[in-house]
Amino acid sequence: MASLSKGLKSLYYAGVGAGTYCYEAAENVLNKFIEKGKESVEDGKSRNEKIKTEVKQNYDETISKLNNDVKPKFEDFVLSLGSFTEDQLKQIKNKIVQKEAEAPKKAEAAEAEDVTEPAADAEAEDAPVKEEAPAENDK
Fold it and tell me: For tag attachment on the chain, is the N or C end more exposed, with fewer CB atoms within 10 Å?
């Protein structure tokens, strides 16, 4: 009887020990998850700042190029308009009106193209591959 109660006590202590061990292991894993989450948030913040910096630099470079390259050319063009004949100015005006009318159509076509392309790719990927039957050897 004494050995039975000693065995039950040992079994009881083993169960309590297993529960405690699982609790500690779960707590350690949870703490690791929390730490990893904090690291991920900090990493995301630093990446976000890096992206903001790159976007600002690209914006500044683009503005600089516009001011240094495009603006002087445009100003030269405007100044040169004085040397054009009236017919040439009418042609330029008509060309501008034509381009303005085409712009919305091109934008709609580009949007439609963007929407339909992935669907076409998906259909091509999902389509079953047809295997050709092996040619029979002539006897």
Answer: C
User: Residue 137 — φ and ψ, nearest 5°?
Assistant: -75, 135
Q: Tens-of-pLDDT digits for all 139 residues of the chain?
A: 678 888 898 999 999 999 999 999 999 999 999 999 999 999 999 999 999 999 999 999 999 888 888 888 888 877 777 788 888 888 888 998 998 888 888 778 877 776 655 555 555 555 555 555 555 554 4
Q: Is 30 found in the same domain as 94?
A: no
Please say whether the beta carbons of 66 and 74 come within 8 A.
no
Q: Residue 92: how many CB atoms within 10 A of its CB?
A: 13
Query: 């047809």: which residue's tokens?
Result: 130
Name the H helices within 66-85: 71-80
Residue 136 forms part of a structural domain: no
Number of structural domains (the chain) is: 2
Residues 68 and 35 in one domain: yes
Q: For residues 13 and 79, give the distance between their C-alpha atoms in angstroms, rounded to a whole number.
A: 96
Query: Same structural domain for residues 73 and 91?
Result: no
Beta-carbon contacts of 92 under 8 Å, excluding residues fewer than 6 positions away, are 81, 84
The reported pTM is 0.40
